[in-house]
């Protein structure tokens, strides 16, 4: 889920831009050149993988072909694969270890698409008639670049006798399913020294910002069907329960903290106007920068749902689908990532890509902000008004991420324009940059135990001495069917 940055505490952010020198790691120029050349050698395979996953466009927990393709690349490169981890059939962990000791450096890979965003890879809107899914967040690029980086790091380790383990986490269902949360809960990240991730974007930045905590779930109402005209008194409309809940929540918006976000879609509302709906369902997200506030607001939404059921003569059940922490910045790692992003440089577009950008930019509308294609100044601590299951990882393992321009500047995430660019050469060129930054930073971490130790110390300072990880999902299992039929978990 791409996170749009909104600056909050401007003075703190500006101060961070001018404190501490840029970290320069111990990996020498010859080794850096080796890593960069390795990524370039893999570029054709990166492109093939990314565009195949773009074409598969599989939604959360259904990414069977996407997951299998990434696993096959890693297995062929000498990684050991553990598939179906943490109760998720499409999740996997790929490991390559060399020698004794050394750190465990993790790289995250995502590969799920968004429902209802089908679009051809062209700069004019061309939605497929069946309305199937599309990669509106660029996770086809995310997974392919992360795998490429893991392989390049593995090759560097082998060539330079580096001890340690490079571990790639194939994490499904980021878009609402909280796949990484189940990995953290299962202890799969517990021994990771540092975790790296990236995300497709419309700009280039290693800013280490926060995100909103998120709790989501489905409210299902059950009533009594009847002929809507011939015997309306016999019916009890489940859709009335959904609409009553939505009305109450919309009034509640005036009485929640300003930074809260509440969204919903009606996923089932009946099939015919002349039949009183016996079942209906609405799917809710609640977000806020503070995890405790998110839980409190969702409890209020559940109370409203109980009232809606009582008032409409229906019954109601709630099934939680997702639950993610906010994102905890780590400047020790972030500055290392920033140094390598600047070392690699922004994506270089040719005539084909610039023509695509020129054609698609007018579709953004008058209100679009067009960011620079230069690398943004380093900053930390601004609020991103999106959510990601990387949040849980960041509270348990030192974690840093970055964004690379894989879309035309000004593109909104979760849009047809993002889908189009993610299936184009613009996306692949950006993914190549991301793979290089990930691999260079992983190599730096393998060679710098001091940086790994400082990143861990920073994590412990930021989360507090009394921190104990408790998932917002509790003991709930993965909602493997949340993208399939209404009422399914």
From TrEMBL:
GO terms for cellular component: cytoplasm. GO terms for biological process: folic acid catabolic process. It holds the Pfam family M20_dimer. Keywords: Hydrolase, Signal. It comes from the Bacteria. The keyword rRNA processing does not apply. This is Amidohydrolase. It comes from Sphingomonas lacunae. The lineage of its organism: Bacteria, Pseudomonadati, Pseudomonadota, Alphaproteobacteria, Sphingomonadales.
């Amino acid at each position: 889920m791409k996170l749009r940055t909104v600056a909050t505490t401007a003075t703190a952010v500006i101060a961070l831009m001018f404190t501490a020198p840029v970290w320069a790691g111990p990996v020498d120029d010859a080794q850096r050149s080796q890593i960069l050349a390795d990524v370039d050698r893999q570029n054709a395979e990166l492109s093939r993988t990314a565009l195949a996953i773009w074409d598969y466009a599989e939604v959360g927990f259904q990414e069977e072909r996407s997951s299998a393709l990434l696993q096959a690349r890693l297995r062929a490169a000498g990684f050991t694969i553990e598939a179906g981890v943490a109760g998720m059939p499409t999740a996997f962990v790929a490991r390559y270890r060399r020698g004794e000791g050394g750190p465990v450096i993790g790289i995250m890979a995502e590969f799920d698409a968004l429902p209802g965003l089908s679009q051809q890879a062209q700069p004019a809107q061309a939605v497929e008639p069946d309305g199937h899914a599309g990669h509106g967040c660029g996770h086809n690029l995310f997974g392919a670049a992360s795998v490429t980086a893991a392989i390049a790091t593995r090759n560097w380790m082998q060539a330079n006798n580096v001890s340690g383990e490079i571990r790639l986490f194939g994490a499904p269902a980021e878009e609402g399913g909280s796949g990484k949360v189940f990995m953290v809960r299962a202890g799969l990240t517990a021994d990771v020294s540092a975790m790296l991730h990236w995300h497709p974007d419309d700009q280039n930045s290693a800013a280490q910002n926060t995100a909103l905590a998120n709790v989501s779930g489905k409210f299902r109402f059950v009533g009594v069907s009847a002929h809507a005209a011939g015997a309306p008194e016999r019916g009890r409309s489940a859709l009335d329960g959904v609409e009553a809940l939505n009305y109450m929540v919309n009034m509640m918006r005036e009485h929640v903290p300003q930074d809260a976000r509440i969204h919903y879609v009606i996923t089932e509302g009946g099939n015919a106007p002349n039949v009183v709906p016996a079942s209906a369902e609405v799917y809710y997200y609640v977000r806020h920068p503070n995890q405790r506030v998110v839980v409190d607001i969702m409890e209020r939404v559940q109370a409203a749902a109980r009232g809606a059921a009582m008032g409409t003569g229906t019954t109601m059940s709630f099934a939680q689908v997702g639950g993610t922490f906010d994102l905890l910045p780590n400047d020790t790692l972030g500055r290392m990532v920033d140094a390598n992003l600047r070392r690699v440089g922004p994506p270089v577009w040719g005539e084909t890509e610039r023509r695509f950008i020129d054609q698609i930019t007018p579709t953004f509308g008058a209100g679009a902000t067009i960011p620079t294609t230069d690398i943004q100044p380093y900053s930390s601590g601004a609020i991103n008004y999106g959510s990601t299951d990387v949040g849980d990882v960041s509270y348990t393992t030192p974690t840093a991420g970055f964004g690379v321009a894989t879309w035309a500047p000004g593109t909104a995430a979760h849009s047809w324009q993002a889908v189009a660019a993610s299936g184009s050469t613009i996306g692949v060129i950006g993914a190549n940059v991301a793979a290089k930054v990930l691999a260079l930073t992983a190599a730096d971490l393998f060679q710098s135990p001091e940086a790994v130790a400082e990143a861990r110390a920073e994590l412990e300072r930021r989360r507090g001495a009394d921190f104990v990880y408790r998932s917002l999902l509790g003991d709930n299992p993965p909602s493997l069917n949340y993208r399939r039929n209404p009422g399914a978990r």
